[in-house]
Amino acid sequence: MKYILRAWLSVVAVFFPTISFAEVATDFSCSFPVTEGQQSIRSFTLTEDVYKCLKYNGHSDLVVVNVEGQAVPFRMDAPTSKRNVSINKKNFSFYREPEASSYKTGDQIRRIASLTGISSGNETDTQWFTKNSYYSSIILEQQESDDLLKKVTIDIKSSGFPVSATVIVESSDDLQHWTTLRSPYNLLYLPGVDDKLRSNALKITTASHGKYLRLATLSNVEDFSAHITRVEGEYERSSYKPVPLRWFSVSSLQMLEEKNTWQMSLPDRRPITHIRFTPANNIVFYQGEIYSKPHLNPDTDIQAAPARSNAYKKIKTLIKNKVHTSHVPRTAPVNPWRYLTSFSQYRIKADADTLTSPEIRISSIQSSQWKFHFSQPQGTTASQLPVLELGWTPSRITFIAQGAGPFKLLAGSTTIPGKAVFPAQFASLKNEAENVELLTSSSMIKEDLSSSDKPVTTSPSKLNEALLWVILLVGVALMALMAYQLSKKMKSGQGVMPLT
Question: What confidence score (pLDDT) does residue 23 get?
Fold first, then answer.
C-alpha cells in the first residue's frame, strides 16, 4: 500500500504543478493567417471579417501569435491623415530702412544690446559699443500666403576680412508696431574659397503672417545693410491627405414604438465615423437626431452597473431633484440609447447645380444598434426613409516577428487575452514596417458548415481540468482503500504498521 501511495504522490507532483501554473488557453472564434515577410517589424490592415468576430469593443480580444502559439508584441493604430510637407524658396525684395529722426544710432544699439542680454551681463556698454558700434536695418515685404516662413538666408559681398553681425528679426503689419520673431542670432562671414566659410541662415521658430519683416543688425562693419546682395526665404507648405473611407449601404430600418423613430441593426462592430443620406424620391431634406446603443462586453456585469455610479453624483442628483423637477438625461442608465449628434441632410436642385449637405461626422463608434429620430419629414413613412451610407476606416496592426512563422491573428474571445507589450523604443519604426496581408480566416469558413459537419474539439484548458479531476478521484479512492485496510488491521489486533 505504501508503494501505491508513493506512486500516486509522484503522479500529483508531476501533473499538478503543470495544471496549476500553465497559461489558460483562450478560445478564439476566428484565426486569420498572415502572409510571410522578411523584416523584423511587419504590419497589416484589419479586414471586415475581423470585425465580424470581435466580441469586445476597442479591439480588446485580438492577439498575434507565432507558429508555437506564443503571443508576440503588437500595437494597434487608428488611421490618421497623412501630412505632406514641401519646401519652396523665394528671394525677398528688400529696402534699406532710412534713419528715423526720432531714433539716434545709440538708442538703436542699446535696443539691440538689451535684447541680446550682453549689456546686462559681464560686458559693459562701452565694451559692447567697441565691438559692435554700427547699426543698420532692412525691410522685407512678404507676399500673402498660407506657407510658413522657416528660414532666412542673407548673402553679402565678398570681403577680405571677417564680417560679423547680430541680427534680430521683427514682424509688422503697419511698419509702426513690431513683434520679435527671432531672438538675436550671430551671423559670421569668413574670407575663403568661394565664400563657403559662413554662417548666414536664420531659423524662424515663430509662425508669422505679418506683411513686413525687419532685420535689425549690429555689425563690425559700417552700414552692414549696404553689403547685402540677396535675402532668400525658405517656406514650408503643408497639405493633409485624408484617410480613405470605406462605405457600405443600409436600406432596411425597423420602426420603433417611439414616434418617427427607426432602428438600424448592423452585422458587426466596424468603427463608424461618417454617415450620409441618399434621399428618397420627392424628399428634399431630413432633420433629426442619432443615437447608438453601447455594446456590452462579455465580462460586463449588467446588474452591478448601477452600483458603479459615484456616491457624490447620487447625492448631487437627489438634491437637484428636490430643488427642481426630476428629469432623465438622454444617456441615463435607464435609457440604453446614447445620444450622438443631430443632423440636417439635404439635396436641393437648383437651375444649374445641385446643393448637397456635407457628411455627418461622429467620433468612432463601434455599435451594432443605431436609432434615428426624424423631426423632418414629420411622420416619416417607410417609403420616405433615406438610404444610409456608413463610412469607416479599419485599424492597422504593427507586430514584431518574434519566433518562427507563419504568424496569425486570433480574434473573438469571451475573455480578454494576455498580450505582449510593444516596446516603446520601437514605436518610431512603425512607419518603416513591412506591409503584409491578412488572409481569410479558416475558422470562419468552418462556421458556414452544418453542425453535423463541424469537428468536435476540446480546448487544452478543458483537458487539463478533466485530468485534474481524475487524479483527485483516484487519490480519494486510494485514501478510502487505506482507511479500510487500516480499520481491518485494528480490528484483528495486528496494530498499525508504520510507513517507511
Answer: 44
Pick from 198, 190, 193, 89: nearest CA to 149: 89
Distance CA 112, CA 68 (A): 69
**Structure confidence by residue, pLDDT tens digits, 441-469:** 655 544 443 333 443 333 444 556 677 77
Domains of the chain: 26-79+395-447 (no CATH), 87-241 (2.60.120), 246-297+325-392 (2.60.120)
Residue 320: predicted pLDDT: 61
One-letter identity of residue 463: L
Confidence class for position 25, pLDDT limits 50, 70, 90: very low
Q: In which order are the strands placed within the sheet that holds 338-349?
A: 254-255, 261-265, 369-376, 285-292, 338-349, 354-356
Q: Is the dihedral of CA 306, 311, 316, 319 positive or negative?
A: positive
